[in-house]
Write a structure and sequence with these properties.
Elements: H1 3-18, H2 27-31, H3 45-48, E1 53-59, E2 66-73, E3 78-86, E4 93-101, E5 107-110, E6 119-123, E7 126-129, E8 146-149, E9 161-168, E10 171-172, E11 183-186, E12 191-195, E13 200-208, E14 211-214, E15 218-219, H4 228-239, E16 242-246, E17 249-253, E18 261-268
């Protein structure tokens, strides 16, 4: 073998010996199965419970027989609080304002509260009054620091009424002549019909508690000079998922946002 060839082979063997050893599949890669992703539960009181409504209870009082507390929480995060000091003279103290949820969606704080507690933990059909530090009250009287949700007392019904639109996406609906204001009517057989501002519509709805959802609507095909209100009205009601009903009227919501549409009862159907 020639001398140059021997030198080349020697150099190649030296480089091969100094190079990195070939890698082998790690035990984790070759033998271990991929770990399942951790499932995070995002449900909380704010987005999972039917919390809107009126709660009542008689909580302990240091210098009276008890404080009769009536707290109404609305879907638009407004509240009305009425407190009566039992055994004392004087009328009920009325306070109203807005409330906000904590980061976990489990506790509400009544804002601009001038008298009484401001923090409540929201449970299934119950509110638990918390102390000033936001902690659950313990001790022998702990059970007395809770408010129970009241059954709806209003005689207003969703069905058998013509609901006339008064507000859409936060804007008042102006009166027109002739009256072209949208309205809708609910039937007991889960059918809904009404007027959208130009065309008539009909469809179906599903409701459970305060949950409400409309199925796709069928409309007449009348040509409209200005269909913007009609289009916005129909698209808005198709997107709602819950409602509130009181003596003041009907309101539609999407999740826990401000009211998307408000209605007033103008005609009771026979």
């Amino acid at each position: 073998m020639s001398k140059p060839l021997i030198l080349c082979l020697t150099a190649w063997l030296v480089l091969a010996a100094c190079g990195p050893a070939p890698t082998e599949p790690s035990a984790t890669t070759a033998a271990e199965p991929a770990k399942a992703e951790t499932q995070v539960d995002h449900h909380n009181s704010q987005n999972s419970l039917d919390w809107a409504g009126t709660y009542r209870g008689v909580v302990p009082c240091a210098d009276c027989e008890g404080i009769d507390t009536l707290l109404t929480l609305n879907m638009d995060n407004s509240y009305l609080l009425s407190t009566t000091y039992l055994g004392k003279e004087g009328d009920a103290i009325q306070q109203q304002g807005t409330f906000e949820w904590d980061a976990k969606g489990s506790v509400i704080q009544l804002l601009n509260q001038k008298e009484g507690p401001a923090l409540y933990k929201v449970g299934e059909n119950q509110l638990f009054q918390l102390d000033m530090a936001g902690q659950v009250i313990t001790g022998d009287l702990a059970e007395n620091y809770k408010l129970n949700k009241q059954a709806q007392q209003t005689q207003v019904k969703l069905t058998g009424v013509r609901w006339k639109l008064t507000e859409l996406m936060g804007q008042a609906v102006p009166a027109t002549e002739p009256d072209m204001t949208p309205y809708l009517e609910f039937a007991a057989d889960n059918r809904v019909s009404g007027f959208a501002g130009c065309n008539q519509f009909t469809g179906a709805y599903e409701t459970e508690g305060l949950r409400l959802q409309f199925k796709p609507m069928a409309t007449t095909q009348k040509a409209c000079l200005n269909g913007s209100v009609e289009d916005q009205f129909l698209s808005t009601i198709q997107g709602i998922d819950n409602y509130s009903l009181s003596d003041s009227g009907l309101a539609f919501y999407k999740a826990r946002t401000a009211a998307l549409a408000r209605f007033t009862a103008v005609q009771v159907q026979p």
